[in-house]
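ok new one. same drill as before - structure tokens go in, u give me an amino acid for every spot. 289 of them this time. try not to just spam alanines like last time pls lmao
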């Protein structure tokens, strides 16, 4: 990218960037809301965190104070705070029994402060970090259909390898079913129009049968478009009108094509009559002499 293009982009966005490195930015650009992609990722992550909690505990997490399960509750709070969800509101919705001054809440608020746009390097927990805090296994991830939360028992590389194997297996199954459903050459030829010869049954030539079939398709498409546009003709009425036109669905012999109205003659033939031009000064002088 040229220097002029970089300056033009910096004036438009408020950020002077080289690659992903931000060299300088305005205050408005620093306080700007995240992009649509970041917002969609945030909303999907919040929805999946809530889905995991609801699948495990229901609408409210049971009171587990003074038990070993508080470690999992702390993981819930850190995962939500590290994904941009305000800890106090999150705890008020799912853990109303948790005190605002508890150690878990203090840790979650500290993590949440690092996710704000005003932070030096805003934090957004990765999929595997959220899975580790919430103890999400690969089986639970597949059951709930999670996309932004990883698995605590299988690494990301291993998940990619398993996904590639599943895709290859699906492709093999699809190709096998396609081969089984395909017809042999003899079966295909036995059912072709060249073998059945429907024009002999209709008592017309091969070219006439194809021409009538083409006309039938054109009329059917036209009537269907009119029925959709106007809402006055149903599909059954369109088909009945097509069948009433003839035994093969083509226009009958009595149908006459109306010629187009001739254009009104305004001069010689159909060309418009020319308007006489006004004589110029030279023509007037020659006529006077």
């Amino acid at each position: 990218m040229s220097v002029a293009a970089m300056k033009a982009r910096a004036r438009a966005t408020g950020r002077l960037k080289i690659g992903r490195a931000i060299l300088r930015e305005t205050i408005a650009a620093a306080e700007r809301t995240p992009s649509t992609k970041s917002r969609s990722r945030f909303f999907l992550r919040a929805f999946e965190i809530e889905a995991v909690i609801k699948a495990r505990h229901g609408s409210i997490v049971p009171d587990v104070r003074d038990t070993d399960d508080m470690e999992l509750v702390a993981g819930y709070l850190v995962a939500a705070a590290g994904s941009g969800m305000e800890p106090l509101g999150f705890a008020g919705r799912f853990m109303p029994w948790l005190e605002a001054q508890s150690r878990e809440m203090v840790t979650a608020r500290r993590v949440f402060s690092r996710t704000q746009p005003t932070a030096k390097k805003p934090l957004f927990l990765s999929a595997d970090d959220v899975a580790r805090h919430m103890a999400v296994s690969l089986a639970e991830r597949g059951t709930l259909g999670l996309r932004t939360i990883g698995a605590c028992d299988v690494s990301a590389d291993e998940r990619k390898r398993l996904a590639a194997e599943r895709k290859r297996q699906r492709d093999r199954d699809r190709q096998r079913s396609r081969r089984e459903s395909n017809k042999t050459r003899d079966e295909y030829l036995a059912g072709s129009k060249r073998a059945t010869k429907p024009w002999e049954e209709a008592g017309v030539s091969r070219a006439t049968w194809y021409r009538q079939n083409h006309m039938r398709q054109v009329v059917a498409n036209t009537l269907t478009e009119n029925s959709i546009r106007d809402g006055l003709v149903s599909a059954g009425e369109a088909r009945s009108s097509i069948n009433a036109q003839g035994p093969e669905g083509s226009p009958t012999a009595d149908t006459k094509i109306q010629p187009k109205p001739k254009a009104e003659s305004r001069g010689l033939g159909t060309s418009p009559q020319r308007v006489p031009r006004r004589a110029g000064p030279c023509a007037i002088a020659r006529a006077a002499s």
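Residues 247-257, 265-271 have pLDDT under 50 and may be disordered. and btw The two ends are 74 Å apart (CA to CA).
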